[in-house]
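pls design
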């Protein structure tokens, strides 16, 4: 197990593109960290700098307190799993698993024992003689994970390892990877653009956008205390609803209804007179009908999506749109008018200019 320190890490590619800006993070021993963000935000670049596959342009990187910038990938004691599995197509599953150890000159007996143990953990015992092309996507991915965990390493890096799998396989592999992490205890950094993977697997999530870290925190922190509009909208499915509104005489209009901000009891809002705010609420935080300590709104139902465990209700009011999540038994009729309430403590307000949360 290893702990890592990333201090003001920057990546400027030879063509001058500044892909990662001032990335700071202390990763504890055995922690499961997820880098998440939209395509191009710099997550893979950061992971590749940690792996030693990409130079660090500026900043410091330490493994167990030792400078690691000049260490080669091997010296860093890192195993990596890529999106594309990178299995040797002409080698059996056994040989794919054994290859790294063979290169290290490990004894045949020891290799056999390790391969068998790894195969058992990953449910690959019956497939050891097969070539990768005779395996399903999920099985191939297990071999790729197996190849990484068979060597005792302190750090385990994964770059979108589940993106080639179908939805069901992804859910299964997600819990398998979490389980493997628990068993091996290796410090893990996992890259994904999928917020559900991040939320379900991470001890801590690093949300990135355009090369900048937006927020670092536990899934709970990011969901309940997002620091800005981007994080609030990225974490959660369906995403948080946002309505832009201007403060006038201490009041705002939200989805066609007029409210006094004094209801929310946040003194800082006084300084927003005449300015714009972004009003946010999560689809799942609403309650149908009227509620105490909540603002109550009326809207027209445009569309409903019954998902089994809940229904997404697409509403419109005053030309503004939002999504609500309701119990399947409460699914309203299309085109009907509904009344719903947003509890005061579920309301998020953001500065429309800086997009930062207003507490
Ligand atoms: P994805 O999910 O699409 O892989 P990502 O968040 O992992 O995205 P990176 O692959 O880290 O993003 O890329 C970050 C930015 O750096 C992108 O804008 C990309 O085009 C750019 N980039 C990546 N590699 C190079 C390179 N070799 N030279 C110049 N720019 C690059």
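designed seq:
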């Amino acid at each position: 197990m290893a702990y890592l320190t990333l201090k003001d890490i920057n990546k400027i590619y030879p063509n001058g593109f500044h892909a990662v800006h001032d990335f700071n993070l202390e990763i504890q021993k055995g922690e499961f960290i997820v880098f998440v963000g939209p395509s191009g935000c710099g997550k893979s670049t950061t992971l590749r700098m940690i792996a030693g596959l990409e130079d660090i342009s500026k900043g410091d990187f330490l493994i167990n307190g030792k400078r690691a910038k000049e260490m080669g990938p091997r010296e860093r004691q890192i195993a990596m799993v890529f999106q594309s599995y990178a299995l040797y197509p002409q080698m059996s599953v056994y040989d794919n698993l054994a290859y790294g150890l063979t290169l290290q000159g490990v004894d045949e007996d020891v290799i056999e024992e390790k391969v068998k143990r790894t195969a058992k953990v990953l449910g690959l015992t019956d497939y050891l003689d097969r070539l990768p092309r005779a395996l399903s996507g999920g099985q191939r991915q297990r071999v790729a994970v197996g190849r990484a965990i068979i060597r005792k390493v302190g750090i385990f890096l994964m770059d979108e390892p589940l993106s080639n799998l179908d939805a069901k396989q992804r859910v299964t592999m997600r819990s398998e990877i979490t389980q493997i992490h628990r068993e091996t205890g290796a410090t893990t950094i996992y890259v994904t653009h999928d917020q559900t993977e991040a939320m379900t697997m991470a001890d801590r999530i690093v949300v990135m956008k355009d090369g900048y870290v937006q927020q670092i925190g536990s899934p709970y922190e990011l969901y309940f205390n997002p620091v800005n509009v981007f994080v609030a909208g990225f974490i959660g499915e369906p995403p948080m609803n946002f309505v832009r509104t201007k403060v006038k005489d201490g009041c705002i209009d939200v989805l066609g209804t007029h409210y006094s901000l004094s209801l929310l009891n946040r003194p800082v809002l006084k300084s927003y007179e005449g300015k714009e705010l972004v009003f946010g609420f999560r689809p799942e935080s609403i309650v149908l009908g009227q509620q105490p300590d909540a603002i109550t709104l009326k809207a027209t139902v445009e569309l409903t999506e019954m998902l089994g465990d809940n229904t997404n209700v697409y509403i419109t009011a005053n030309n503004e749109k939002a999504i609500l999540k309701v119990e399947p038994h409460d699914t309203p009729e299309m085109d009907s008018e509904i009344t719903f309430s947003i509890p005061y403590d579920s309301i998020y307000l953001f500065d429309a200019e800086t997009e930062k949360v207003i507490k």
